[in-house]
Amino acid sequence: MWEKILFYVSMCVLTFSFLSKKISYTETSKFSFYLKFFLYYFLCSLLAFVIWPLFLFRPRNVKNSRLAASILKHITKLYDLKWELRGADILSKDRGAVIVSNHQSSLDILGMFNIWEVADKLTAVAKREVMYVFPFGFAAYLAGLIYIDRNNPKRAREQLNMTTDVMVKEKTKIWLFPEGTRNKDYRSLLPFKKGAFHMAVAAQVPIIPVVFSPYYFINNKQGIFNKGHVIIQCLEPISTKGLGPEDIDGLVTRVRDAMSTVYKELTKEVITNLPSDYPHTTVG
């Protein structure tokens, strides 16, 4: 059985590599675009199917997430993507914290896989519907992922506030995307939802803003999915000590403004360094 699985996976990877080499970055192809995303989802699901029984020995333990990430991060090699982490010392410090970052694509998860070992004790928050996507959702649940019901804001906030012990006593970092949905416009950030900030204030833990540079190499409508360079910039932590519910609005504005400034700087940096004939895009 396992020999057959490995054989089919190898065939998919070899086929993907062959087809990708036939298409230069000056060309677009819907087939190549969807093939790359299909293989990404397929490999993530395959690993989840293989590894979830091991998670039963320590269910809901964030160490399971780190194990999965250490394997899945190698998918990056198939896409010729470079993830450059800046401010690793901020992320590696042993403490509970709420990490907030911008959200552009499902590839954000691949970026997270590549820096997971630096953060060490880390989990993330996802919408409840993901839990029912077998086998990935179930494996992620066993790995400590936190699911919330976004259709019930009150219940979602209660679920997030229940994570206080995880952050404070176990010194675990929790990653959220405050934009709430994937932002297809690479020119600016979407408005932030307040759930992550309520959670940080309730636990009195710092907020660590993390900014992904724009995915200029992806465009759905044009069928673009090229190699690319993504900078992941960690900003200085923002303390929530002494803050209460009345300070949430100001905290959201402060964090978003800081992230927006860095996002614009990173956008200028990565676009400036592209070849003159590179078909970069401002819309995903």
Tell me what the structure shows:
The structure is a single chain. The chain contains 11 helices and 9 strands. With 284 residues, it is an alpha/beta fold. It is globular and about 50 Å long. The chain has helices spanning 2-21, 30-55, 62-72, 76-79, 88-92, 107-119, 136-142, 153-161, 164-168, 195-203, 248-272, and strands at residues 81-86, 97-101, 122-127, 146-148, 173-176, 207-212, 218-219, 224-225, 228-234. The N and C termini lie far apart (39 Å). Helix 3 (62-72) packs across helix 6 (107-119). The strands form 2 sheets. The protein has a 7-stranded mixed beta sheet, with helices on both faces. A two-stranded antiparallel sheet has the order 7-8.
